[in-house]
Amino acid sequence: MHATKLVLAATLLAASVAAHALDKVVFATNWKAQAAHGGFYQAVADGTYKRYGLDVEIRQGGPQVNNRPLLPAGRIDFLMTGNLLHSFDNVKNGVPVIAVASMFQKDPQALIAHPDGGYAKFEDLARAPVAFIAKDAQFSWWQWLKADYAFKDESLRPYNYNVGPFLADKRSLQQGYAVEEPITIAREGHFTPSVFLLADHGYSTYSTTIEARTDTVKNQPDLVRRFVEASIIGWNNYLYGDRKAADALIRQDNPEMTDELIAQSLALMKQMGIVDSGDAQTLGIGAMKPERIKDFYDKMVRAGLYKAGDVDLGKVATTQFVNKGVGVDVRRKLTGK
Fold first, then answer.
1. CATH code for position 56
2. Pseudo-torsion of CA 229, 230, 233, 234, nearest 10°?
3. Do 166 and 114 belong to one domain?
4. Distance between CA atoms of residues 124 and 118, nearest Å
5. Nearest to residue 57, comparing CAs of 27, 80, 32?
6. CA distances from 337 to 39, 199, 240, 331, 333 (A)
7. Whole-number pLDDT of residue 236
8. What tens digit of pLDDT does each residue of 51-74 get?
9. Which runs of consecutive H residues, i.e. helices, occur in the chain?
């Protein structure tokens, strides 16, 4: 009888442990840890992922790291990627992944000018004699600028992520991540640059999307739901709550980050409405709409990046895990509005 009780107790204990076991998830980003990844680190730091039954490992990207192939290969579970151009390419090339959320309502890509350069409005930028633009951008959103705003290739100069050439020529433009380069320019140039967010002038892509494999969405929808919803909660808490522990994790992964840099970057994200604006205000952070995806695709067709019919837009993203108002109550509780 005593032995039977021991076996029963051990069985119950094993069942209890199994019931509380967390699902291991590997989530990879597309660059080094920074404020623009803050919501994910927040969900790790404050236990939100754990409350959703997840043990999440964040693997940061970087200049020598390409996490994109790891998702379809099954070596990671979710991937943070840049914008919808990546998703269009995935569908066009038959890569079996799909966007399940968009944590940024606005792509942070921007054109940056000197405040005394003579560019009062966005349309004025097309007459800049020099524009420092990286090669990948020259073959993506620069083509949209040419199609919709008559920018000229003659102004192009290579951008090598060094703000020195821009600082030396007050009539020049340079590309930049709106929550990063302006901070560097202000520090090194001792002036506040003019920042023109492409998203505010028709560049309607979603950004910082979360991608999953299509088989994961089909076979483990509850896992995807929990990861997406916990990430949304994490972003609300990072934007509006106590983020100290998350910032500590960011600095741990990327020692180049400082509290000051993180605070400045987050302030710009809030000021520009990068994360929590537009549809996210009512539908929740992560919101996506098929009509907006089509709008952006149509613009990219006009810019010559794709041909009509190249991409089955129904395979680009799924809205089954977003647009439910998740996290809106958290924001209201933290902000009072």
1. 3.40.190.10
2. -140
3. yes
4. 8
5. 27
6. 20, 25, 11, 7, 8
7. 98
8. 999 999 999 998 888 899 999 999
9. 2-19, 38-45, 48-51, 84-92, 135-138, 141-149, 164-168, 181-189, 214-219, 221-240, 244-253, 259-272, 280-283, 290-302, 328-335
CB 156, CB 131: distance < 8 Å: yes
- Supply the pLDDT for residue 62: 87
Closest to 32 measured CA to CA, from 211, 227, 255, 258:
255
Q: Identify the domain boundary among 157, 181, 201.
A: 201
pLDDT of 337 reads: 85
Q: How far apart are CA 165 and CA 188, in angstroms?
A: 12
SS3 category, 324: coil
DSSP states of 54-117 as a string? EEEEEE--BTTB--GGGTTTTS-SEEEEEEHHHHHHHHHTT--EEEEEEEESS--EEEEE-TTS
C-alpha neighbours within 13 Å on the C-beta side of residue 176:
23
Host domain of residue 233: 2-105+205-335
Q: What is the pLDDT of residue 332?
A: 96
Tokens, residue 284: 């929740």
Same domain, 101 and 236: yes
DSSP code, position 140: T
* Positions in the chain whose pLDDT score sits under 50: 1, 10, 13-19
Cα distances from 329 to residues 36, 140, 232, 236, 282, in angstroms, run 22, 37, 12, 9, 10
* Tally of structural domains, the chain: 2
Model confidence, pTM: 0.91
| Separation CA 167–CA 272 (nearest Å) | 23
Give the position of tokens 């002036």: 191
